């Protein structure tokens, strides 16, 4: 299913008058709409292939309907999102869930939808049928060299798939760790993991990056071998220039100041990218911005400030991806909400009066610094985000159109009630 | 498989000399071994049927081998545990995983193993094949009366199964809640849940108890409709005299003082029982006592003090059950460790010099109160626990015997490598 | 110092054109400005006397200048706030810091500033010079009856002061608890505290309320005797109809769902009032809305829904108070920011489309429910709040006027650099 | 006051028979008492000068009596502790609280008590009378170069005092950070702090170490500029070979796995030392081992394993210090409990069967690894610790002797009821 441009046009026509009024008001108020619009239009958020189906917990999974069962259908789904918001122009694949049997055809299909291939993801946290060795006790950290070798080779295979598709990065998230005191020798586990990563690193093409993702807990419940940004940074520094830390917003201990972590990693030249989501308790994988949108804004505030200070490109120098689980919402609606939340936070952070903030910081004028941030945050920037979509050919109200256009019903019609996506 | 008594006897013979030396020393040191032994011997911990197989997380499950695939085999497994430690004399069933098609035969089988039927557990957190209504958005809280009715009827069915088996209680754990702000009207969800519970309560036999279990989060990640002890107590009080709160050690927010909760619930006459496990981050469902054994001791310290103050029977007036998930250990070994940890904490708490503690508390002698608790806690009470097992006919070193006796290998021989238990 | 009305008028004149444009736009967009304005205008937030000076931590205190050193000066400060925002029309006193030696004169002074006397606060967490008994080991929970008696009498004295001033409620916050396992018998401490509260309750005038405040930790670091909402509710229920639970936003364990607690307390008819602040780690006492403004909105969303459902008056049926510590901001600026944040959240919650939300909840349309909440939250309601101030005679931009009017400098001129307020 | 050796001898004589019986039993059981004893005897824990008086919270301080008011009296107090346990042979000073006006005399006094001077501590978290610049907005991070210069010079002054006393290390704990979003530019604050530390580092004698302590929160409640081990390690690595990370057990986010952090820092060659205490919620500064003694054991388990693997000396290659606050216990009793808890954990960790553990880890035998750890942990090693004291000339039961000997009463007699120590 490809969304007809006329449908979008028709939708926009109905919404246009109200939008124009709102956008004009906002433009007048802010006086900098044009510059922000250009940045918003350049900003794309990758969609993970595994977020297109219903997620679940260990207690159960309540499947949706019309989910994409093949890689082609997943690309189609991301194509739909991108047609609606023009900001989801990349897909991130997970091997072995998304092995492209015909890479050329897959690339062509993606191109038809205007999509690129973002970071490739390996999977050594689950056993696959007919796999020689089990990852029950870890993969790259495993005490048994044969298991490590299997996991290393899997990662190299993932790189190779990515090369064929035009991807430029590998994200390594390890569930490796321990669930009980005494289970693991932390030092040796670190060392074995490092050596395994070094072998993978050696297989990385010259223009690729490797992202070392960290996570505080789950599925191991005592220690994680890449458990926080400090550990990830140790690995990235020991690996070399192509290695970076990847921040998943849900992978922290309670109350962590993620925006400070982001600022410091940027400062060290080692921030690689993001997995966006939101959470209240742990790696809850909720819709971006659904629990604490101010924190999201504060993170973007650091990103904009830091990227500019380093002379980096907002749109291209970091990897931007959603990583959420859609247990009780339609995955496509949820992803539209997530992308919008990211764009809202990005637009708000672009509105921050940097010069005034810097001056307030220099004067330790704490109340004024807060006023400056909240002036940007409390501004209703949704018309800016909508205008960016409009200018790119997307829909003014993506979710509204998704519903009015009965997109899910059409997908169910094509794929059936029982079509289930791979993933968690 | 039934463990031959001679095997146990042979094992004990080898261990006896060393044990006697340790036990005699401890008896001399404490001077109150006999009284504690009687209490330890009377104390039984129920084993949940779903803890006999390998658990998993949403990221995967690494199955073991020789797991019990039928209710009969689960009873057999608990029978093995009980033969080894003589302290696991009850099994707790989960419907629909454990529907007894022939209750009489199941009762007989259990009796052969010396087992009773502890609390029955209902399951409205997962959909079953051919179920009319989905629990995707809750069960007893659901906005749709038909869904609530289905869930109520399921609970009544569970009670009926329990009546046939001689159980005397129903544990209701609800995953009901919400994952996003706005999803639920908290007040109405509470009210609907209360009305549903009232219908279940009305179906409860006169000599039964209903345990309302609470949980802070997971699988819902924004709110849980029975989210903490305060909410559970509200429900229990509104239901009536047969309703109690059940405490699962892993179901709290970070840093919660569980022992205080326990003491207050006891004081209100509304503490119903326990689900024992341990955890570091959330409902990690780790082996009891594997992360913070001192907390376990402090909980037992409140239990012993409070039960005695209320004139209640340690062994029979509360429900004692393990609720853990065995992702990377042999479930039977894990359960042996858990039961031992509970017995150790219980024995330590029995050793506390109550009169001295009361006096220290009365004098606000904080340092002395700590000395008194730690005097009991630091005492190595394992010989007491082993002696209790010995006197009851169990093994001095259950895990050692489990391993030397190659019990798991025998079970695999009987059931096969691929035999998988129901559960999470 | 009393702020000249002409100064405010002059300030508003300069800001008016821009404000009118923003307010008109918002009125058109929302279509319900008038009704919301009336509610905003009726809504008053009490200022605690102890928040008018610089706060500190155990590591130190960095005093400001020109702080109010007397009760009269504190009333003057709140009068200044109220003149600026017309929403701070009440002051909450803390005894013994604010003993009114001449109640009639104090009442008159407050009336001149348009202020009422909100809840009275007792202090049994610190020892005062010449106090017979120490609260080192608690007050209402103390094992020594003489200490409890002293604390009870102090509370009754606080009530008497309040009666003289026209206050109608007493807030009891207890630091009582324990810092070490074993220090306290939880059950007995609960019982002693209850009996002490009952004596205080008996001294309460017929038209008074008593608020039982809870706190998870600090200054006791193992247990707090009124530690969570469940415990507070137990006390309130046992005390009687005049007893209520008071919620301080910073007094919870990490990740607590405060909005659900609020909804349930309202449902039980036992929510008494609020201490507003914000926090990231514990009882950080930061400016309201400075860390997680969405949570504040969600709390108000429950309040508006619940108060309306119960037929209660938003402005008068609950106690609204700020309780924050101003370590590094000017206290008056900080309080202006806090009041504004509360009004913004209140206005946003009034904007929520209740009928649509109820329908979405009924349909389990989770994505739509989120859209409805965020539609209200993302709306920039500041012009509504400013308009409410304008209509009441306050300043369009209180902080701006505070700074341009050099109010602090004037206060320093009057009181001196070294004038220090009582408080933490 | 110096404790007469005869008093200790008399005390030991009464306790000896029972002790011998216990020690002999333990020796037989473990078979390795002699080797452990030697290590225990070599192991000394430094006492911080500020822990000798009653601590407090921001809510108040309940002073004790007979506290040491001078540096000489503080040395006397540590001397008393050391006389009792022979394991507190060092004192750690805090400047400006403990400025030695006559270093030679102070060294002599310390030597009389058998004490060395452990790490020196600077204080840039509080303003001192007559200080030119305030630390309200930080010290080494401050935006104003003059403030940074003042803080740097203070640290250099502290080094100089330390040189005079024979200390060999400087601990820098910074309260620097921010309490509100926007207040600080994280990158610049890091950079300024680094440059300040570099100036201090340049002033460090060749044989000195500098310890960079981290803390997650408090007294700043939004960000800390040295907030976690990762940040501390960044600073230490950028500073050079003499810079190390210092771990304070209470300075972490909830649920942090401290033992893993310790193992990794040791692995990086950057673990400098410890501040021991215990906590439930934050930096509660409770008695060591009073809340979670198993965690303390697990930390020592990593230390012993890691130090041995690195060929380091347990007693001398890391800095061992208590850092606790004694709000409601007699500080000297509390410190005796803390030292004992550390020794117990150390002894338990020395009992761990390393070869068996390594084998179990190699085999992923998780249950066995747990058994091995708990075998050591559950052993009652107190007789070993007591024997170490006995052999060194200390008391078998230090607290008992402290009480029976009426030491506090004697100190009050000497110093008076109102004598108050400096500190928090």
From TrEMBL, chains A, B, C, D:
Highest taxon, organism lineage: Bacteria
Residues annotated as domain Xylose isomerase-like TIM barrel: 100-285
Xref: InterPro entries: L-rhamnose_isomerase (IPR050337), Xyl_isomerase-like_sf (IPR036237), Xyl_isomerase-like_TIM-brl (IPR013022)
Keywords recorded for this protein, A-Z: Isomerase, Manganese, Metal-binding
Protein name: TIM barrel protein
